[in-house]
Amino acid sequence: MEIDIDINKIDEILNRGTVVEILPTKDEFRNKLLSGEKLRLYIGFDATAPNLHLSHAKNFMFMEKLRKLGHEVIILFGDFTARIGDPTGENATRKQLSREDVLENVKKWIEMVKPFMDFNNKENPPIIKYNHDWLSKLSFEDIMNIASNFTVQHMISRDMFQKRIKEEKPIHLHEFLYPLMQGYDSVSMDVDAEVCGTDQTFNALAGRMLLKKMKGKEKFVVALTLMENPKTKELMSKSKGTGVFLDGKAVDMFGQIMSQPDEMMEILFVNNTLLSLDEIKEILNQNDPKKSKLLLAFEITKIYHGKDLAIEAQKIWEATFSNKEIPESVEHTLELDETKSLMDIAIESGLVSSKTDYRRLLDTNSIEHMDTETIIKDDKQPSQIGTYRIGKKRFFRIK
After folding, report:
1. Which CATH number belongs to the domain containing residue 301 in this structure?
2. Which residue has the higher pLDDT, 72 or 80?
3. Are residues 141 and 23 in the same domain?
4. Residue 142 lies in a domain
5. What percentage of the chain has pLDDT greater than the value 70?
6. Contacts of residue 60, Cβ cutoff 8 Å, sequence gap at least 6
7. Strand order in the sheet with 19-23
8. What is the model's pLDDT at position 93?
9. pLDDT by residue (tens digit) across 263-304?
10. Would you say 293 and 263 are in contact if contact means Cβ atoms under 8 Å apart?
11. DSSP state, 325?
12. CA distances from 316 to 37, 254, 331, 369 (A)
């Protein structure tokens, strides 16, 4: 596949707003893309959970744009490093997973990203790799040799470690090994560039240093935005109900996007749609937040679920929230079981993630029996059949 050096395409990718920083410099990376040389680029993910949200998705979309230019793109799943546990930034050690847990999550991830990455491309498909293939084969001598390239001072300088030290929280020795292992990924795959979120820049730079020392090769580090709310500085989080997730139906995604605060619109347009920057600017300049958000929800839902389901999702949303109607088709219909509480039913249906989430919804008067217009105040057994609404966009029916 011939390398595309169209300067307008390259500048659109680099200037769109997804990229936060490029090391050593943006100009050097741009010139490399314009040179016509085929680059090997990778992005790594530790599949520590079975779900993905739009902040993850924009990373895959960024890689797909580079692949379409003709470059070799590697999606690396850390089925080894996920079991070590990269420090989370939550002042605590991340729970270690089994390899089976990680691989099960990976299967779900691949299915979720297929709508926007062309794995069936015959000329230049994205390549999937697993770092267990090389990290599991390292001897203790190999690890000692890798570790000899780093100092304790370098490792301890990581901001999340500094925070833990200040708060007298433990730092486990195996957590120091994580940047070494991620760094060795670059050496093993002999890459030209690594794409990562800004929370992974420390690890990516460890790989840049290791590749330079072990192979005498320079590596670009391309750090992408984490898509935080510009007002609250909050990141997408399923546990907090603040994200837009890829594992649901079209109507769920549409509703989750419509529930996002207005200040997130430009960020979502830039990072998660295929519209040009000029088109986005024109939409936002109309100063019609509802119309803009409807278009945003449609464009994103269309990418993941197709045009027809996006149209249907919009009709359902408008019927439910613009006209205050119950959707004609409620996805979850359950038999009345008086031995189970409403909370149990809601969790089993998948509409509520946990007991904590359910109680939070109760506290905010967010569970309603639609037929009687009654707000649910407790967790008693459901004595009434009919349709229930959870929050603004989730429905189930008990018959």
Report:
1. 1.10.240.10
2. 72
3. yes
4. yes
5. 87
6. 43, 75, 113, 116, 117
7. 19-23, 220-224, 193-197, 40-45, 72-77, 127-130
8. 47
9. 999 999 999 999 999 999 999 999 888 899 999 999 999 999
10. no
11. -
12. 48, 9, 12, 19
Whole-prediction pTM: 0.77
8 A C-beta contact, residue 42 and residue 191: yes
pLDDT at 13: 94
Question: What type of residue sits at position 142?
Answer: D
Confidence of residue 91 (pLDDT cuts 50, 70, 90): very low
State how far the Cα of 211 lies from the Cα of 336, in Å rounded to an integer.
Answer: 61
* Count of CB atoms situated within 10 Å of the CB of 51: 17
Range of 150's domain?
A: 7-224
- Does residue 227 have a pLDDT over 80? yes
Mean pLDDT across 119-144: 94
Same domain, 201 and 290: no
Residue positions counted in the chain: 399
d(CA 32, CA 26): 10
pLDDT, the chain, mean: 86
Contact, 111 vs 51, CB < 8 A? Answer: no
pLDDT band at 41 (very low <50, low <70, confident <90, very high): very high
The H-assigned helical ranges of the chain are: 7-15, 26-34, 54-68, 81-84, 99-113, 132-135, 140-147, 152-156, 159-166, 173-189, 201-215, 250-258, 265-272, 277-284, 289-305, 307-317, 342-348, 355-363
Chain centroid, CA 240 distance in Å: 15
Q: How many other C-beta atoms lie within 10 A of the C-beta of residue 266?
A: 17
| Number of Cβ within a 10 Å radius of residue 148 | 9
Q: Which two tokens stand for residue 354?
A: 């946990």
Task: State yes or no: pLDDT of 360 exceeds 90.
Answer: no
In terms of domains, do 88 and 54 share one?
Answer: yes
Output the domain CATH number for residue 105: 3.40.50.620
Strands 386-390, 367-369: pairing is antiparallel
